[in-house]
Every structure is written in C-alpha cells, then in structure tokens.
Design a protein that fits this description.
The protein folds into 2 domains: about 200 residues, Rossmann fold (3-Layer(aba) Sandwich), CATH 3.40.50.720; about 190 residues, 2-Layer Sandwich (Dihydrodipicolinate Reductase, domain 2). It is built from 12 helices and 18 strands. The chain is globular and about 60 Å long. It is of the alpha/beta class. Helix 1 packs across helix 10 and helix 5 runs parallel beside helix 6.
Length: about 425
C-alpha cells in the first residue's frame, strides 16, 4: 500500500459527461495541489478521450496539465476496447484509486476488477442495482482494507449539511411529508444516454431521484420501508426505448411520505439548466416546521451576449461546480461537486496513511479501523453507510416492472425487498 507521503495514482474508467463536467477538473486541481499523481483515463474508444484532451476550458483552467489516454488518442475511434480497463487497472501498484464513471449497470464489473487488484474506489452513484451486490462489495473491501466511496455530491452542499445538523439537534421535529424533483435537460436524450439509458438498465428515479432519497436519509437518519414508481416511456433519437419520466413515492419508517419526480425533459433553452429541489414538512409538539431547498435557483441570474451557456439568459448555480479565478495559474473548481470528489480522494489517502509503518495483519487492521471510523461519521457515502440506496433502487426497479405496484423493504432479520401483497 501507499506510504503517507505518496500521491495517489488515478485511473478513471469512463470518459463521458460527468468526467468532463466534474471528475476530471476536480482531479486536475488536486493534482496541481500535489494531492494526487498521474491521471490515466480509459474509455471504450478514443472519441470521448480526444474530446476531453481538446476541451478548450481545460487548457484555460489547467495550463500544462493532461492525462494519459487508453486507448491512445490517435487510435481509430471506431475501434472498441471493452476490456482495456482491466489491463490499465492491473498495471497500478496496490493502494491507488480507481474512479468508476461508466453507465450504472456497468459499475459492478469495474468495481470488482479494482478490488481484485487491491485498489481504492470512487464511483458515481448509484453504487450497484441490488443490495446483495452492495453487501458483496462491502465485505470484499473491508476484508482488504480498501475504501469505496460513492459520489452522492449533494451531501456536501452546505445547505444539506446545515439541515442535517439542525434536524438531528431536534430543531425541525419529525419529517412527515415532502416532495423532491430533478428534471434534467432534454438534450440528454441526444447524448450517449440513448445508448444505455434503456428500460432494462435504468430510469430517471434511480438515476437522479436517488440523490434526494439519499439526501432525506442523510438529513434525518430515517430508513425507507416502501417504494412505488411508475415510468413514462419514450423513444431516443436512435430508436431505443427508455423511461423519459418517472414518479415515485417513498414511505419512511416513521410513516413519512416523499414523492419524487424525475425526467429527461427540462427545456434546453429555459432559464435553469435543470429543475430540482426538495421540500420537507415536519412536525413537533403543537407546531410544524419546514426544510425547503430550491436547488436549481440560488439567486444568481446571468444575461449573456452569446449562447455559449446554451441560452442567452440563465439561472446560475455556483454552489455545485464552477471554474473561477483564483490566486494561482488558470482557474480553480469551487462548489460541493469538487468538495465531494476531494473528500473521497482524501478518505482513500487517510486509509493508506493509517497503516504507515505497519506490515501484514497490523497494517490491515489499521486500515479497517479507519474504514469503520469513516462509516461511523456518516458523511461520506460508502457501502457500509449508504446501502439503503441499493435497497431503494432494487425496490424501484421491481415496482417499475409491475406498473407501480408497491415494493416493501424489510430490514429484519436480513434486509431484503419484496413486492407488497
């Protein structure tokens, strides 16, 4: 494993939208700060890697920085390399970090390869589609003393952290009823989504609605016990059929209700780049309380002379992720999108650092103790902390397949999901 003063070497598997928008600029800044070492990015073919390498904003924000591409940038884009990521991961020394940024249904395969080669993991959400897979990953990671972090970045929104602290201090009473929504832009339908976001693999509830299910659990500590979801089908430009819209209801262990509305259909030229938010109504003794987050609008409005932002007028959310001037070369990332990546990278470093100077079973025990401490703090999403999300995903997919029938989540004696009688 790495020594305390060694930089983590990074392999990113997946070169799509989230890598460009959040992951790679965050890693570039951490590299610039001396936190991580080399960055390698592996994709199915060279086309997305070339787009990343030639992205003008990166040249402006991170002058002189770059990544090693697998396959090489000059490889014909029509040539596919489905197993290349295995070779790239296998070439890493133990105790480095693999970032999993592939479509949801491919997470498990990449994660298992990384764990087999003794690597820490940072994966985009959701971790995997079923609770059983999450348990398997958790056990394997714990046995090897490896950190697996799930990138639920809304946990790092200061609004969410503040609400968590106040809720758990009793300032709101008990959550009773609420609404959440996350409607992503229509142009997602013209992206690579049309190749994988099909009915058999995903849906808007499990893809983006999971953020708010996780957030309610993160704020309140409550566990979900019942899920029902219905989807609205549509056809992508390439002819594939997928759920373009979904609406679900989550029942929590105290009887509270959360409705969740999601879709790929926010107008591309509307003021916000999406439509998202959360409202939670709560009750105390002889009075009520409310938590309300308007997450698509944070009080900033820009009117431009051009359409580089997709429209000439936009609501701007600098809280999630922006590249801004700073007292250094280029630009720096700010917002909870960056802070989430940073925290998960630093967690992997802390696990390595816990075993510095130790060998064998003592080194393993020290890493395992650090993993336990991370889980007990409950801020980072890990398989040991956020496994309720896999139960919700599993229940949602069962419900969708049966036109919205409710699926129950049972926790005793062993967590499982079943259709409601």
């Amino acid at each position: 494993m790495s020594k305390q003063n060694e930089k983590l070497e990074i392999v990113v598997v997946g070169g799509g939208m989230i890598t460009q928008d959040q992951i790679l600029p965050s890693l570039y800044h951490l590299q610039r700060q001396g936190v991580i070492g080399s960055i390698r990015i592996c994709a199915l073919n060279s086309a997305p890697l070339r787009a990343l390498a030639e992205f003008p904003r990166f040249a402006e924000a991170f002058p002189g920085q770059g990544f090693e591409a697998f396959p090489a940038l000059d490889t014909p884009p029509e040539k596919m390399h489905p197993d290349l990521f295995k070779q790239v991961i296998a070439a890493l020394p133990a105790g480095q970090l693999v970032v999993v940024a592939v479509p949801d249904h491919l997470h498990a395969g990449v994660i298992r390869v990384a764990l087999e080669h003794d690597q820490h993991i940072l994966t985009v959400k959701p971790l995997v589609p079923t609770y059983a897979e999450a348990v398997e990953i958790h056990k394997l990671a714990q046995a090897k003393g490896l950190c697996v972090g799930v990138e639920y970045h809304q946990r790092f929104d200061r609004r969410a952290l503040d609400a968590r602290g106040l809720y758990r201090a009793g300032r709101f009473g008990q959550f009773r009823c609420g609404e959440a929504k996350m409607i992503e832009p229509y142009y997602y339908r013209h992206s690579n989504f049309q190749n994988w976001f099909t009915k058999d693999h995903s849906d808007p509830f499990t893809y983006v609605g999971c953020h708010y299910v996780d957030l309610v659990h993160f704020i309140t500590g409550l566990r979900p016990v019942e899920v029902s979801v219905r989807g609205v089908e549509g056809r992508f430009p390439n002819g594939n059929i997928g759920y373009m819209w979904a609406q679900g209801q989550v029942v929590w262990e105290n009887g509270a209700l959360l409705s969740v509305t999601d879709g790929l259909g926010y107008p591309d030229e509307a003021a916000g780049t999406n439509d998202q938010g959360l409202v939670m109504y709560c009750e105390g003794e002889d009075r009520s309380a409310i938590i309300k987050h308007d997450d698509q609008y944070r009080g900033v409005q820009h009117g431009y002379l051009d359409r580089r932002a997709g429209a000439m007028f936009r609501f701007v959310s600098p809280d999630y992720f922006r590249l801004v001037p700073w007292d250094g070369a280029g630009l720096r990332p700010v917002g909870y999108g960056f802070e989430s990546i940073e925290a998960l990278v630093l967690a992997a470093q802390r696990v390595n650092a816990a075993a510095v100077g130790l060998k064998g079973t003592k080194a393993l025990a020290a890493r395992q103790q650090m993993l336990t401490e991370i889980d007990e703090r409950g801020v980072l999403a890990t398989p040991g902390d956020s496994w309720i999300n896999e139960l919700v995903t599993e229940a949602a997919r069962l419900s969708l397949a049966q036109d919205g029938r409710s699926a129950r989540i049972e926790y005793e004696p062993t967590p499982k999901v079943r259709m409601r009688d």
